[in-house]
Design goal:
- The chain is an alpha+beta fold.
- It is 26% helix and 18% strand.
- It contains three helices and nine strands.
- The strands form three sheets. Strands 1-2-3-4-5 form a five-stranded antiparallel beta sheet, with no helix packed on it. Strands 6-7 form a two-stranded antiparallel sheet.
- Strand 8 (157-159) and strand 9 form a beta hairpin.
Length: 216
């Protein structure tokens, strides 16, 4: 990939040179497709380092294991520790929290969610397996069916170019929050009503006692 006198590598003009198994540095590499293949049975890693990798945390490593698992690791502790792992089946594991932009300054047309409890009640949770999972030892998944959820909350559904529908599960959180708030408000109202009924009952009992005393 490039020759000894080339400061960078241009795919349309620079000659190709086999790299072998040594370490190499490149700058300004421009190509539509770059493929790196490990030898049979071995994993493959790319390390991206800033500041000459002088400090812990300066470098990230992208690795592909034999079998297809992809991981992103950081050396913040002095050794590479996986921060994000993606299996060949599509399962993802993240070592940390996920934050989404939610600043009020980035939003407009802000409205409260109405009838959240009714909408949540219409969501039917399911237990299922994906069709690609043919092994009975694979654990079942819990979730919803996009086509069913679309009938109540179409804004949570995305349809890809291949016609496959996906669900924005994260967006269910504010809906559940609103539903809980509605339940809490309903409970407060019912407690107030109960207190009123208890007060009325107490008044009736006192009136009855007074009536019985006067009747003797």
């Amino acid at each position: 990939m490039g020759n000894g006198s080339a400061p960078g590598w241009e795919p349309d003009s620079t000659d190709l040179t086999a790299l072998g198994n040594s370490n190499y540095r490149f700058s300004d590499v421009v190509s539509e497709t770059v493929t790196t293949t490990a030898t049979s049975g071995n994993s493959l890693s790319w390390t991206l380092a800033a500041d000459a990798a002088e400090d812990n945390g300066d470098s990230w490593q992208v690795s592909v294991a034999d079998g297809g698992a992809l991981s992103f690791s950081n050396d913040i502790s002095g050794s590479q520790v996986a921060k994000l792992a993606l299996s060949s089946s599509g399962d993802m594991r993240l070592a940390g929290d996920v934050y989404f932009n939610s600043d009020a300054n980035l939003k407009q047309d802000i409205q409260p969610i109405s009838n959240a409890l009714q909408k949540v009640s219409a969501v039917a949770a399911k237990r299922y397996r994906f069709t690609r999972e043919m092994d009975d030892s694979e654990p079942a998944h819990l979730g919803v069916l996009a086509q069913e959820l679309e009938q109540t909350l179409p804004e949570l559904i995305n349809e890809g170019d291949d016609g496959i529908k996906s669900v924005n599960y994260i967006a269910l959180a504010p809906l559940l929050t609103s539903a809980m708030n509605e339940l809490a408000m309903d409970n407060r109202q019912r407690r107030k009503q109960l207190q009123v009924l208890k007060a009325r009952k107490s008044s009736l009992l006192k009136a009855l006692e007074q009536f019985e005393r006067e009747g003797k």
